[in-house]
Amino acid sequence: MVQYSTPITAAFEMQRQTIEQSQKALHQGVQFQQNLNAAFVDSLDAQQSAQQRTVELSQNLVHGSLDAIESTMPGVAGTVEEIRATVDEQYDYLLENHAEAFEAVAAEIEEGSDAYDEMTEDYVAALDEQVTLLVEAHEQLESQSVEIADEMGEGVQELQSQVEEVQEQVREVQEEAAQAIDA
To answer: What secondary structure does DSSP assign to 84-136, as a single string?
Structure first.
């Protein structure tokens, strides 16, 4: 018996594999973006620390300059100490504002990243549901298509069998007619 449904089954299987691979690629893309966001959020502490060290280095350079002025110019120690106190006060203010700004930015970025993660998880879950429904409908369509192909195949085989019977009858009639003419 000829299997008419084999190519149909193979085509449907290939389509399902394409759907599943696309779904997997989407999951990987979303996971990559979430990992990228998490890495960015994690890098904020390092960025803050590096910028704070830069500010502290700048403060130390100013202190070094004030030390140089104080050691080369006698009698300016009081003035240099006042300047040093003012510089330290300004740097402390700068570092405090810097820390607050980074905390605010980090909180906003983390909140945005969390919201993105939640939104993409909801989107992916909804998409997974839709893909599940699509695959189920696809499997039903395949089943119906295979059934129709099998029925058509059986019909073709039955028709072919009938044609062969008619051909056999025609051959028999031709042989009888040929025998009748010869007799």
So the answer is: HHHHHHHHHHHHHHHHHHHHHHHHHHHHHHHHHHHHHHHHHHHHHHHHHHHHH
State which H helix or E strand residue 3 sits in: none
Q: Give DSSP secondary structure letters for 35-72.
A: HHHHHHHHHHHHHHHHHHHHHHHHHHHHHHHHHHHHHH
CA gap 67, 84 in Å, rounded:
9
Domain boundaries, the chain: 6-182
Alpha-carbon distance of 69 to 83, in angstroms, equals: 11
Question: What is Dmax (Cα atoms) for the chain?
Answer: 153
Helical pair 77-182 and 6-72, crossing angle rounded to 10 deg: 170
Q: Which string of b and e fits 115-134 if b means at least 16 CB within 10 Å? A: eeeeebeeebeeeeeebeee
* pLDDT in the model for residue 28: 95
Q: What is the mean pLDDT of each successive set of 10 residues along the chain, which is 183 residues long?
A: 70 91 93 91 88 93 92 88 94 92 90 92 94 93 86 85 90 86 78
Distance of CA 145 to the CA centre of its chain: 33
Work out the number of other CB atoms within 10 angstroms of the CB of residue 149: 17
CB atoms closer than 10 angstroms to residue 17: 10
